[in-house]
Design goal:
The chain is an alpha+beta fold. It has nine helices and seven strands. It is elongated and about 60 Å long. The chain binds iron/sulfur cluster and FE2/S2 (inorganic) cluster. FE2/S2 (inorganic) cluster binds next to loops.
């Protein structure tokens, strides 16, 4: 059975480089199979632009199976588009109607400057992780991991928090451009495991202070981050992060 095809109008943010003005440019994506992913549709548009000698639309992607966190853009004003719990690369064109107009923009946040078109610089996330999102104490070898009991509820919660792929949709969706969901997922993941315990307080202080230094906003509990997160990370992680940070500060733990 042949796949259904649709034709959609696109309004795509084109910006030649950082610190240069951008604008929405109109394109038509013709005869797009509804079995295509959203990024495959952009690939088709780009092939047409290349054939005409025009600059293709720049966007990030890598795994295209929802696990790496490289992709992401605002689709009709929603981070990663209309399907809950779905990355841009896993969104399919069957979700759109023939003749529909789709507005495609980059993440917009001061801490995520646009590099080109739909690509933004998310190295601020790398610096938050570098500030403390790791375990540097000796925790033994592989056999020791099997010998340290972890309560099932804690291991499940840690695993759920570890599912964060660092895509940045939470920041893009937040009216304050806060990075609390991302940072709290990393802090919670490590705080719940015995191996993360020795550096738990210093980690919370360092990561939260780096998050603030990067220029992300504060959390006002809107919940927009949770609503768009492709990995369904809950905002209860943010409460955990605030407890971790506050306890460390009360104890006088410095960076
Ligand atoms: S918390 Fe969710 S939305 Fe934010 S970076 Fe992680 S996976 Fe992406
Ligand atoms: S390209 Fe890896 S999550 Fe989308």
């Amino acid at each position: 059975m042949s796949a259904k095809t649709i034709t959609v109008s696109l309004k795509v943010w084109r910006q030649p480089a950082k610190d240069q003005p951008g604008r929405l440019v109109d394109y038509v994506a013709r005869d797009i199979s509804t079995d295509m992913s959203f990024l495959e549709m952009l690939d088709v548009v780009n092939e047409g632009l290349i054939r005409k000698g025009e600059d293709p639309i720049a966007f990030d992607s890598d795994c295209r199976e929802g696990i790496c966190g490289a992709c992401g853009c605002m689709i009709n004003g929603v981070a990663h588009g209309p399907d809950p719990g779905t990355t841009t690369c896993q969104l399919h064109m069957r979700r759109f109607n023939n003749g529909e107009t789709i507005v495609i923009e980059p993440w917009r946040a001061k801490a995520f400057p646009v590099l080109k078109d739909l690509m933004v610089d998310r190295s601020a996330f790398d610096r938050i992780v570098a500030a403390g999102g790791y375990i540097s104490v000796s925790i033994g070898g592989a056999q020791d991991a099997n010998g340290i009991p972890v309560p099932k509820a804690d291991s499940d919660h840690a695993m759920d928090s570890a599912a964060c792929i660092g895509c940045g949709a939470c920041v893009a969706a937040c009216k304050n451009a806060a990075a609390h969901l991302f940072t709290s997922a990393k802090i919670t993941h490590l705080a719940l495991l015995p191996q993360g315990g020795p550096e738990r307080e210093r980690r919370a202080v360092r990561m939260v202070e780096q998050m603030e230094a990067e220029g992300f906003g504060n959390c006002s509990n809107e919940g927009e981050c949770e609503a768009v997160c492709p990995k369904l990370i809950p905002i209860s992680n943010i409460a955990k992060m605030v407890r971790e940070y506050t306890r460390a500060v009360w104890k006088g733990v410095g960076v």
